[in-house]
């Protein structure tokens, strides 16, 4: 159970957040002003408050992005009781035109994310006014706040696309007149990159307190931003080119991270366990959660509460398509035939990561002696029997907390981990034509997966092999690209990134429409589902925000 020896991620100063209606007119700085927050100690409190905001998610608006990154992709079904139970999630799942009508869900998500940005900006405005003589770590704290601001703008960008960029120099009047199209797509990505660039240049490689962003985390996140930026999109969301200069920056930054103490965990499972396993060798940056910290229930990971296999939860359920993707033939993925037949435990060989990612009926849940059972699925006829594992904890552990009708946990949420760094580097190499150099990076991830069996002794028919050019594959650029994209799906499955990968690669419509067609027989609610290219790549800008902006905001293409 985590206690308060960590950097505490709850607000030490009571902030009165303004209503959604007032966001554009009044920055959410709270009741305290710059005039009475001038000392280093007070500023440190505001820095902690900004850290708190990046974990201020809730049941329906998780910052882990399982709703936007998993359910919206081919990795997960919505789950829950039926289509009406969290109907907006149902609309996301089938790319329904109703996404544009049900804006209550996205409006509050948008608002909460800008509250987090405003906290970072408030801390920055204070930091800008204090001297280094008064606060010797001033530039480090500025780097941290720009890291957090970059993180929240990144989330907004990959979900909403057209967003206003807000910094600490803007007055309430400036904010009220902001446009969400003031920058081109590339310019907006560069603004986000600039925040991480400052963090990279000013943060130390090691921080005294666990949970603070460091130089390696900034480098990894900056590489991620440049990877997204590299895939140039036109106004209709089409990927029209892949920029080689941006890819080179990905290579430079990931090369630096690879000189760090960070590395792959010895076992894949260790990334998704609480307590002593948190902030481990692979976790470059994670949102910190806690208990016994002076709050009612603790600083809990509330955004994942609906994903527990409980009567009020059972959302974010792994799809049959995802489970089938773990099948192997001679140890390699079955790229073209994986979904021809559903996974059978008795006959199919599989990648070990299946049992770390998906709860299967009759198998131990989270490496315990207690099995996950079929009756824990609320509506198996509609959403199947699988359940999500990575973000959840052993229900018998101290990290599992009942909060009203739901159960949350105090396990950290990893934002970026070392395996992602290796795969980002491999992707950049492939797209630059140096696909041979990507081979050992992908194999490094697969080798770790192969040995990740110490906690899944119950698993049978495990078979995963590395790629060997000229032996079990012909490693061309096209094959390498396919292998990389498959590896990202398996390694990062159910971690909230799948849909955004598909959009970045420009293949979301192709993949999702094939998925809908394949699922329609067994899941009738997919019948008639269609991913509309040049529209469904992004969620519409909430109409409430357009109205509050008095017309300064423009809607995404297609809506």
Automatic annotation (TrEMBL):
It is found in: Cell outer membrane. Residues 104-227 form the SusD-like N-terminal domain. SUPFAM superfamilies: TPR-like. One of its GO terms (cellular component) is cell outer membrane. Coiled coil: none annotated. Its main location: membrane. Keywords: Cell outer membrane, Membrane, Signal. It comes from the Bacteria. Residues 282-558 form the RagB/SusD domain. Belongs to the SusD family. This is RagB/SusD family nutrient uptake outer membrane protein. It comes from Plebeiibacterium sediminum.
């Amino acid at each position: 159970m985590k206690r308060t020896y960590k950097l505490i991620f709850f607000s030490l100063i009571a902030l009165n957040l303004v209503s959604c209606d007032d966001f554009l007119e009044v920055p959410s700085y709270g009741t305290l002003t710059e005039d009475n927050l001038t000392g280093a100690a007070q500023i440190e409190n505001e820095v902690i408050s900004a850290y708190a905001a990046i974990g201020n998610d809730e049941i329906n608006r998780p910052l882990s992005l399982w709703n936007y990154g998993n359910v919206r992709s081919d990795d997960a079904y919505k789950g829950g009781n039926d289509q009406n139970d969290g109907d907006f999630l149902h609309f996301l799942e089938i790319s329904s035109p109703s996404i544009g009508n049900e804006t209550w869900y996205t409006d509050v998500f948008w608002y909460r994310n800008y509250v987090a940005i405003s906290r970072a900006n408030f801390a920055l405005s204070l930091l800008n006014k204090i001297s280094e003589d008064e606060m010797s770590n001033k530039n480090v704290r500025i780097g941290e706040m720009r890291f957090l601001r970059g993180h929240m703008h990144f989330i907004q960008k990959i979900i909403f696309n057209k967003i206003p960029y807000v910094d600490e120099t803007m007055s309430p009047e400036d904010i009220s007149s902001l446009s969400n199209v003031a920058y081109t797509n590339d310019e907006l990505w560069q603004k986000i990159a600039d925040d991480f660039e400052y963090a990279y240049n000013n943060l130390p490689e090691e921080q005294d307190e666990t949970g603070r962003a460091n130089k390696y985390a900034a480098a990894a996140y900056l590489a991620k931003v440049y990877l997204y930026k590299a895939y140039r999109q036109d106004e209709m969301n089409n990927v029209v080119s892949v920029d080689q200069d941006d890819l080179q920056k990905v290579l430079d930054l990931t090369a630096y991270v690879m000189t760090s103490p960070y590395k792959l965990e010895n076992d894949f499972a260790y990334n998704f366990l609480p307590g002593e396993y948190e902030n481990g060798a692979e976790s470059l940056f994670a949102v910190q959660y806690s208990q016994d910290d002076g709050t009612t229930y603790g600083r809990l990971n509330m955004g994942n509460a609906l994903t527990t296999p409980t009567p009020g939860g059972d959302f974010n359920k792994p799809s049959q398509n995802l489970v089938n993707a773990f099948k192997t033939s001679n140890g390699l993925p079955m790229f073209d035939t994986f979904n021809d037949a559903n996974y059978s435990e008795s006959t199919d060989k599989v990648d070990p990561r299946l049992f770390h990612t998906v709860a299967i009926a009759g198998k131990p849940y989270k490496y315990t002696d207690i099995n996950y059972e079929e009756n824990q699925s609320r509506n198996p006829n509609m959403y199947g029997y699988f359940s999500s594992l990575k973000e959840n904890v052993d229900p018998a552990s101290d990290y599992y907390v009942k909060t009203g009708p739901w159960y949350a946990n105090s396990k950290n949420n990893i934002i970026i981990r070392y395996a992602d760094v290796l795969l980002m580097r491999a992707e950049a190499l492939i797209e630059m034509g140096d696909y041979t150099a990507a081979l050992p990076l992908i194999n490094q991830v697969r080798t770790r997966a192969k040995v990740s069996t110490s906690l899944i002794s119950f698993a049978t028919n495990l078979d995963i092999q590395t790629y060997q050019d000229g032996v079990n594959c012909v490693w061309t650029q096209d094959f390498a690209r396919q292998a990389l994209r498959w590896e990202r799906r398996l390694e990062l499955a159910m971690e909230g990134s799948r849909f955004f990968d598909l959009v970045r690669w420009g293949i979301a419509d192709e993949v999702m429409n094939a998925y809908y067609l394949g699922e329609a027989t067994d899941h009738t609610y997919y019948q008639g589902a269609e991913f509309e290219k040049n529209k469904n790549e992004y969620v519409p800008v909430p109409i409430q925000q357009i109205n509050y902006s008095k017309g300064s905001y423009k809607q995404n293409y297609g809506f």
